[in-house]
Amino acid sequence: MWPVYVINLADNTARLDVVNEILGAQGILFERVDGVNGWALPEDEIARVYDASRNAKDGRYPLVPAEIGCYLSHISAWQRIAEGIAAGGFIFEDDFAATSQLANVMAALSADTVGDWDMVKLFTLDDQVSLGASRALLDGVLIGIPYRVPTCLIGYALTKDAAARLVARVPPFFRPVDEDQKFIWETGLRVALVLPPPVVLGDQQAATGTVGGARRSARRSGFRQFLHQILYALDYRRALARHRRREGWDA
């Protein structure tokens, strides 16, 4: 099986204990990646990695420090895969839970030689999503390309080549890391999804707070922001439709 990396902030020891239980129960070894606490980053480091000007123009909303730290944490995990000897790796955030199929799915992906994906998401909130060019990965488990890439990077597989390409793109960045992966015409990655997903949401409580909580408390309000969000969503849908048409999708 490819190496497994779990992003974990040093203060979130309870989450790491849960990860040990979840992965240990299925015989999955992992390496901890020290998460970056965005709230502790100095302003000059934030300015170096986060393009606030581009965000104001093309982002959905301003990033909070927790989101900046989250992006840097994933970059650290990508670097380990890109510099490793394996053909790929698995990355998890430390707030996941898993079905009994997780180890089997991971083993199957590690051995998969079809070559029709660069990243495979192991989680989606919408398990009824339709897949293009789907095929059987295991009995009762499908892998395919979703028309719209699901949000969230709580658990995913990544090839070595794809990891190197992601590392070469950033920093700087101006979107959250999970949002960036939805812009597949920019990353150039073929993002697949496994159904049913072997990863589910775990306990979202954390000693350091959560990205979602920080995002909600800092969210801009008012009509101008509402209009910005609407235009952002419309622009994304149009760009996605153009990209999928070029790939031969009917939708």
Could you characterize the architecture of this molecule?
Keywords: Transferase. Residues 2-110 form the Glycosyl transferase family domain. It comes from Jannaschia helgolandensis. The protein has helices at residues 13-25, 43-49, 52-58, 65-83, 102-111, 160-169, 177-180, 184-187, 211-218, 223-247; strands at 4-8, 31-34, 88-93, 96-98, 119-121, 131-138, 141-146, 155-159, 191-195, 199-201. With 251 residues, the chain is an alpha/beta fold. It has two domains: 4-219, Spore Coat Polysaccharide Biosynthesis Protein SpsA, Chain A; 220-251. The strands form two sheets. The chain has an eight-stranded mixed sheet, sandwiched between helices. A two-stranded antiparallel ribbon has the order 4-10. α1 links the parallel β1 and β2. The longest helix has 25 residues, at 223-247. The two termini are 36 Å apart.
